[in-house]
C-alpha cells in the first residue's frame, strides 16, 4: 500500500530529479503502473491549476494533489475464500442444524472448530475469514447475557437433561445431571 510520503517521493523524483518511471520503480520497489497513475494524476491536476489560476476549485485541486492515496477495496475478489471453502463451511453449518434438530445442540461445531477442520483439510485460511463467512452464511440472532458475580461457596447450580449420542450407528439417549459451584465452575 502506497502512503502519502511515497506518493510525494514519486512526484519529486520525477519532477525535480528528472528520473524515469523505471528508475523510480527500481528504487522504491513500486509497480510502474502505479507510478504512471500518480504522475498522470499530478500532471492533470497541475494543468488544471495552471489553466485556471484564479478558479474557485483551486483549493480542492491542491488538497487533492497533497492528499494520501485512497483505495477502493470493496470490489476486490476474495482470494482465499473460494467456492470450495464456502461449500465446506455450508456443510458444517448444515451438520450443526441437523444436530440441533435431533437434540444434540451441545455437540455443534463452533466457528473455531470449523476453522480447525478447514486447517486439517490443508486449507490456508484465517480465522477471521472463517468467522465472516459463517456470519454471512448463517445470519443468527444475537443473544444477550448478563454477567453475574458470586461469592465463593454461596451459590451452587444444578442442571439435568438428556445427552443424545450416536454409538455404533444408533442414537442412544442418556440421562445426565450436574452440580457446579457458581464462583469456580468446579
Major sheet details: 2 strands, antiparallel
Low-confidence stretches: none
| Number of helical segments with 4 or more residues | 7
What is the CA-CA span between the terminal residues? 51 Å
Q: Roughly what fraction of the amino acids lie in strands?
A: 5-15%
Note the overall shape.
Answer: elongated
Tell me, rounded to a whole number, the average pLDDT. 85
Class derived from helix and strand content: alpha+beta
Order of helices and strands: HHHHHHHEE
Radius of gyration over C-alpha positions, nearest whole angstrom? 30 Å
Count of domain modules: 3
Describe this structure in words.
With 186 residues, this protein is of the alpha+beta class. It has a two-stranded antiparallel sheet. It has helices spanning 4-15, 21-28, 32-51, 58-65, 83-101, 111-120, 127-137; strands at 156-167, 170-181. It is elongated and about 85 Å long.
List the defining traits of the structure above.
single chain; 186 residues; alpha+beta; 3 domains; two-stranded antiparallel ribbon; 7 helices; 2 strands; 47% helix
Any chance you could write out the topology, listing elements then pairs?
Elements: H1 4-15, H2 21-28, H3 32-51, H4 58-65, H5 83-101, H6 111-120, H7 127-137, E1 156-167, E2 170-181
Antiparallel strand pairs: 1-2
Helix pairs in contact: 1-3, 3-4, 5-7, 6-7
